[in-house]
Amino acid sequence: MNRSQDLTTAVWRKSSYSDGGASNCLEVADGHSGMVPVRDSKRPDGPILVFGASPWASFLACFKK
User: Fold this and answer.
1) Alpha-carbon distance 14 to 20, whole Å?
2) What are phi and psi of 34, to 5 degrees?
3) Residue 26: count of CB within 10 angstroms of its CB
4) Where in the sequence is the domain holding 45, given as residue range(s)?
5) Is 42 a member of any domain?
6) According to DSSP H, which parts of 1-65 are helical?
């Protein structure tokens, strides 16, 4: 997995798991094979966390129970 991929042109979307309120705004960028870039929409120039696709799927599975 290439975690150093250039994300400057990433297209971000608000996660369906964000509640839409001002305090919970998680964004993800799709289309990055094997990885899921995540950021706080309130700080678009802030840090980006990059998760492997499999660990991200396991994380989301916790919320689908």
Assistant:
1) 9
2) 80, 0
3) 16
4) 12-61
5) yes
6) 53-61
For the chain, how many structural domains are there in total? 1
Amino acid 1: pLDDT: 44
pTM above the 0.85 mark?
no
Which token pair is 32?
């990055």
Q: What is each CA distance from 59 to 6, 9, 39, 51, 53, in whole angstroms?
A: 24, 26, 16, 10, 10
Chain mean position to CA 30:
8
Task: Give the single-character DSSP code of 10.
Answer: P
Query: What is residue 64's predicted lDDT score, i.e. its pLDDT?
Result: 75
Nearest to 25 by CA among 7, 13, 34: 13
Whose tokens are 């289309």? That residue is 31
Task: Give me 45's structure tokens.
Answer: 């120039």
